[in-house]
Amino acid sequence: MNDEYKCPKCSSENTYQDGNLWVCPDCSHEWDPADSENGAEDVAESNVVLDSNNNLLSDGDSVTVIKDLKVKGSISGIKAGTKVKGIRLIESNDGHNISCKIDGIGAMYLKSEFVKKL
User: What single DSSP character describes residue 84?
Assistant: First the structure.
């Protein structure tokens, strides 16, 4: 298969054409192979992490958890309103794109959709 039809985000060859766009069912990415700036745009998109209110997050930000979250191995979990300081953004395939330490629980990975920026 030609490299221009591989997914530029996850490099999967499992892609199909939908009109003018190509679609990757593995990572849900859509792209136009005729778009020459697409590669640079994808790199910039992959580094962008937004909170639940679509605010841009960056390393060192403080956030608040917006929903009670269950934690494996813990009885109490994380309560809504818990403040988390000094987050670190990571790349992950399972959606957990924030690495942090929470008082009383320890090191955790969180999904950005369950936090809001302070």
Answer: E
The token pair that represents 72 in the structure block: 């494996």
Residue 50: beta bridge partners? 56
Domains and their CATH numbers in the chain: 3-46 (2.20.25.10), 63-117 (2.30.30.40)
> What is the chain's alpha carbon radius of gyration, rounded to the nearest angstrom?
18
Sheet holding 29-31, edge to edge: 16-18, 21-24, 29-31
Give residues with Cβ within 8 angstroms of 41, minimum separation 6.
Answer: 35
How do residues 77-101 score in pLDDT, each as one tens digit? 899 999 999 999 998 878 899 999 9
Choose between 70 and 42: higher pLDDT: 70
